[in-house]
Amino acid sequence: MVTGDGRMLELVGALWAIYGLTVGFVSGVLEPVTDGFFHLLSSAGLRPVGEGYSSIETLVVQGHHAAAAEAYADRARNPAERVEATIRRAQLLAGPLEEPESAAVELDSLRSHPLAAKDDVRVGLALVDLYEHQLQDSGRAMAELRRLIDRYPSGQGARRLRAALGALKAQRYPGTSP
């Protein structure tokens, strides 16, 4: 009987070792991995990718327009944010800071770098708005619209660009058909 109890004790010891290794693996390796995976899934889309512009927009709302313009200029040094930050800075320059000429120069300087079609259209439309409303230069606004139409004749907004160009022509040259 003593030999049977010895084997039983060895079996219990082996099973206890397997149990210990399994619990150690689950709690030390598998559990943190699954917790991290579920944390990643539960927070996906809830965190902003970048810093955003809320801190700069807060400066604008508080009336610190020069500081906000400088912050946009700092953000525009990053190639990934260049177009968005420069357009926002140009809006600030043309509006509260009353420097529409500087805004036009900065927007026009964006073209010295290669732009995606979407960004080129955004810059062009910002220039059209600036020329037409702040600088009262409908000739330059029409030229910019014509440039966009010529460059992207089958683009998504080409019909609206043509309509806007026709409206500007009719406004500047009354009595002519668009």
Please provide a written account of the structure.
- With about 180 residues, the protein is an all-alpha fold.
- The chain folds into 2 domains: about 1-45; about 55-170, Serine Threonine Protein Phosphatase 5, Tetratricopeptide repeat, CATH 1.25.40.
- Helix content is about 75%, strand content about 0%.
- The protein has 8 helices and no strands.
- It has helices spanning about 1-45, 55-60, 65-75, 80-95, 100-110, 115-135, 140-150, 160-170.
- The longest helix is centred in the N-terminal third of the chain and has 42 residues, at about 1-45.
- The radius of gyration is 32 Å and the shape is elongated.
- It starts with a helix and ends in a 6-residue tail after the last helix.
